Amino acid sequence: MKKTKQKLNLNRRNFLSGTATLAGLAATASIVPINISNANHKEGSKGLPGFISWKDRNALIIHSDKGIETHRSAIGESLITPNRNVYIRNNMPTMTDSQIGNRNDWKVSIEGVKNPKTFSLGQLKKLGHTTIATILQCSGNGRGFFEHKVRGSQWKTGAAACVFWTGVPVKAVVDACGGIDRDSVFMTSAGVDHKPTGLDPKKAMVERSVPKKVYSDAMLAWEMNGVPLPNAHGGPVRMITPGYFGINNVKHLGKVAFTKTESTVKYMKSSYRISPIGKKGSQYPSCWEMPVKSWITRPTDETGTVKSGKVQIVGVAMGGTRKVKSVKVSIDGGKSWKRAKFIGPDLGKYAWRQFALETTLSAGTYNLASLASNGPDKQPELRMENRRGYAHNGWKDHSVNITVV
Ligand SMILES: Nc1nc2c(c(=O)[nH]1)N[C@H]1C(S)=C(S)[C@@H](COP(=O)(O)O)O[C@H]1N2
Ligand SMILES: [Mo]
């Protein structure tokens, strides 16, 4: 009963804002495994892949050189996730300095506008400047909780981060091009990281279409938490689609086009579709809007022994495309709930908020859970079963067991 309801909820949301087509059969039939290892991914110091040797090894769980997760307890240490702790998810290899060349000469073309134009990053920097905090979260964050055999990095909570991006609003760029084509339906962003691989662009190009309305809050970002956007995070410039899953935040951005139809590359047409287990195809909803979600980051089984007495339970909560309104915390596996307080500053609806509940715990074992609401939507108890383990926001799987002594 509950499961059916969740399935309908998420599907309805995506179907309402989406225009899934039935034309993806050819594409789904032709998926080939892509080997992305290159010199750039050789192991560097501290057991980290070379291209992210500057990250904090202790904060990270390495699933592969394409999927590096942030430890649960390393999230929410501060409201903004420091770059050294931010997860990595690559479909294509990170571009190297020599492939990128002079950063200010990097080109981004804008199409589907009145006056299509190609800007250098140097020119983009003169069009306008702002900073926003958004959550970057992989569509598969929480996949590790699914019980069917699901392909891909077994992320638990750590394919997510809250980041300050600095760049130019897409709106300002579009204005400089005379405005968008009125007939367009999507904003389609393309990365160029497939180029050095020489692979067929239809299979390897990370090109993502999102509903056109996303452009009004979107940004072309060249700075991440105050430093030039690291190559590993898509430098020198990436698309930021606030409230939308990670994959739509295209790295190594080469083109933004306002289009009438969705991109037909594999990563749009057949991948990142939320389909029932055993089914696939482009008729299913794309990983677009993130749902409301929260999880506890301290104390957890990672943070060591908890002493009896006063305990502060802390976590992060996000509203998706709306502002998060409230969070409840349970210490008895969801039997009873108490309202948590938000702590720290409010960085806008696309950032997460830290929450805290102070309670007194005597020796024993506890199952700690959190349940966030953004007003109309709250976290369901159970995950929405789906083939690739996408969009998990069920509170039960995200709960943690702790022992108090
Ligand atoms: N060009 C390009 N953009 C991309 C990807 C990629 O491989 N290439 N990976 C996507 C995925 S699946 C996610 S979750 C985020 C990860 O961003 P991060 O590695 O900076 O954390 O980038 C997205 N944008
Ligand atoms: Mo992702």
pLDDT under 50 segments (min length 5)?
A: 1-45
Largest sheet entry: 5 strands, mixed
The set of bound ligands, ions and cofactors reads:
the ligand Nc1nc2c(c(=O)[nH]1)N[C@H]1C(S)=C(S)[C@@H](COP(=O)(O)O)O[C@H]1N2, molybdenum atom
**Which percent range fits the helix content?**
10-25%
First and last CA, distance:
39 Å
Which structural class do the helices and strands define?
Answer: mainly beta
C-alpha Rg, in Å?
21 Å
CATH top level class name of the largest domain: Alpha Beta
The tally of helices reads: 7
Mean pLDDT: 90
Number of strands: 21
The portion of residues forming beta strands comes to 25-35%
Side-by-side strand order of the widest sheet: 5-4-13-8-9
Series of H and E elements: HHEEEHEEHEEHEHEEEEEHEEEEEEEE
Please state the overall shape, judged from the principal axes of the Cα atoms. Answer: globular
Write out the CATH superfamily name of the largest domain: Oxidoreductase, molybdopterin-binding domain
The CATH architecture of the largest domain comes to Alpha-Beta Complex
Summed up, the domain count is 2
